[in-house]
Design goal:
Two copies of one chain form a homodimer. In chain A, about 45% of the residues lie in helices and about 10% in strands. Chain A is α/β, with parallel strands linked by helices. In chain A, helix 2 packs across helix 3 and helix 7 (about 255-270) crosses helix 8.
């Protein structure tokens, strides 16, 4: 059985295409006066970009905080606030504007407005029962591929795991390379590395087919152009790399770096992009060429990767880290084959974590 | 304004994925006993593949003939036959199984079942008013990109022009590289060249952006692998090349070869793929590297391109050919810029046609 891959329904790509958001949303506005909800990264709170949001009088603007990665409790809180403010009426749209975390929050909220209970109940695969509210993704950082994926990754009480479902996929994405400007260099770099590492993992994995290979190769090619060559089209290219990376996941998987990164995020609260980079740097035995190239990218952009972050970690926390990493069985199997459990023991994972 | 590009809703890719068609369709079957319509290229009429069609008792199997390119009159006839046989009930699905022409027929029929009048009334851009019947595309030849596009190209009483609309896009495509086997070498080659030429035209055109460039480059890369190197993955790669070629059209256009090919098809009844190839071979001044590479492909696969097809053409027919080619203004503008009318006069087009 091959996955029947749900695609984003509408995509607009181009410098300045953010200006079309108002027009796009107007087609979804109902005569009954229902509102729209804008979930926007709060880094834009004091930014002139705020003035460009196409809000109508009764729309809700929710500044979302993603200093830490999104939690199920945060999604539940936002959903409750929206329900209270909308007084029982279902919003006509949820629009997520920000990086991968903000887009994941928008996806999750749009699902939780129509599905009962806590978002923690839906961490897993195809547990969502009802279609989401119409939802739009507008990335302001490139690399995570969240704009194309069928997941909304959340940290819950027991695990970091996405709400994976066909209903999670955005109805519309707006890819405007102009609005990714202005992020700090490290954030730009680590988010881009999410895409780069993802491509290395999927292209060397055991799950690949021609569909995912084509997308993965193109994303990798674009990442190399952006991070080793640079140039005026870099914003456009990284935005396409991110999208192609997200598409490549249809018939592939990520691997060792992503699995270890989930443990780092869960226990140490590290952001996903930096977590991937920290883990990847110690994975030369699994990805020799990728790690060598990654180090050239680090050097070119003078990125000082954090070291010794697990130096004083208690045994119990290390064990939790290992538990969280081991939940991600498809990632290990993709990287190491069906017999991965013989290769990747708890001791070996502990040894890798202790180096970081 | 950037085009808000409508994507295919679901895509399944993989060797043997055709076996999932029954399961996919079962989710669309209604309890009211409505039927599904299979439009299948009649080359499969005496082929064992016929036994694999997941027909239910009341479903309609329409063998479609594409010895000539699809005409609006043929689409109107098929639509009437379906309406008569379904006795007023709307079919739950239309499934097109074949090459680009068959897929275009399935798209057009699914539109004409819900839109009044003749399909000739809708040749153009965004003239379709009502959503189509749920429709599925299953390509059995790779290269045209019809599986990904928002058009259904038809030859009408006045012109060869597509039904271009968001409703034209397939709800589902099934990309199974196993079922493209068995086509004659020339058909395989010319259909693949549709994709190759399309990429050369779009990548050297004036309309390109990073989205279409990424898709176009990947399609071109895959075409080169297939037609210059070959190898066991060629079917998979050409299927992805075709899909990426179709996607690249979102923000790009084809060019001189396609424009001239439309005239050849309209007047001489030539198939699109061979028409492109015949025209392209005389376009060295516009696409020097592409034409040189194309000739290496011709040679490698020992393809004997038809020559002197316009040798005895009456003046009146030549004029019609020029008229049909000139309708396609966006293609000329993409290839030659805003001032294309100064460059590409009727005389110059006539001169090119007379060489063919």
């Amino acid at each position: 059985m091959f996955r029947n891959f749900r695609m984003v329904s509408y995509i607009v790509f181009g410098r300045g295409s953010f200006n079309q958001l108002d027009d796009i949303l107007s087609k979804q506005r109902n005569d009954d006066g229902s509102i729209m909800v804008f979930c926007v990264d709060d880094v834009f709170k004091d930014n002139p970009f705020k003035e460009r949001l196409p809000l109508k009088s009764r729309d809700l603007l929710m500044w979302v905080n993603v200093d830490v990665e999104p939690k199920t409790s945060y999604v539940d809180l936002l959903t409750k606030q929206i329900k209270d403010k909308a007084m029982g009426a279902l919003p006509a749209a949820v629009i997520g504007i920000g990086g991968g975390s903000t887009m994941d929050i928008a996806k999750a909220v749009s699902l939780m407005l129509t599905n009962p209970g806590s978002s923690a109940d839906y961490q897993g695969w195809d547990l969502i029962k009802n279609p989401a509210v119409y939802h739009v993704g507008v990335p302001t950082l490139s690399g995570t591929g969240a704009e194309a994926s069928r997941t909304a990754i959340l940290t819950g009480p027991q695990k970091k795991l996405g709400l994976n479902s066909d209903y999670t996929v955005f109805d519309q994405i707006v890819l405007d390379p102009e609005i990714v400007r202005g992020a700090p260099v490290e954030q730009w770099f680590y988010t881009g590395m999410d895409c780069y590492i993802h491509c290395i993992e999927s292209l060397t994995g055991t799950y690949l087919n021609a569909f995912s290979k084509a997308y993965g190769e193109k994303a990798l090619d674009l990442c190399r152009q952006v991070f080793l060559e640079g140039g005026p089209e870099s914003e456009d290219k990284l935005m396409m790399a991110s999208y192609c990376g997200g598409m490549s996941i249809a018939y592939s998987q990520v691997g060792v770096a992503h699995a270890l990164s989930y443990g780092l995020s869960y226990v140490l609260g590290l952001r996903h992009g930096i977590g991937n980079s920290i883990a990847f740097d110690y994975l030369e035995e699994f990805y020799p060429e990728g790690v060598a190239e990654f180090r050239r990218m680090l050097e070119k952009h003078r990125i000082d990767l954090p070291r010794h972050i697990t130096a004083n970690l208690e045994e119990e926390k290390l064990n939790t880290m290992i538990d969280v990493a081991l939940i991600l069985e498809p990632l290990w199997e993709n990287a190491l084959g069906k017999d991965w459990k013989k290769i990747m023991t708890r001791d070996r994972i502990a040894e890798l974590y202790r180096k970081m």
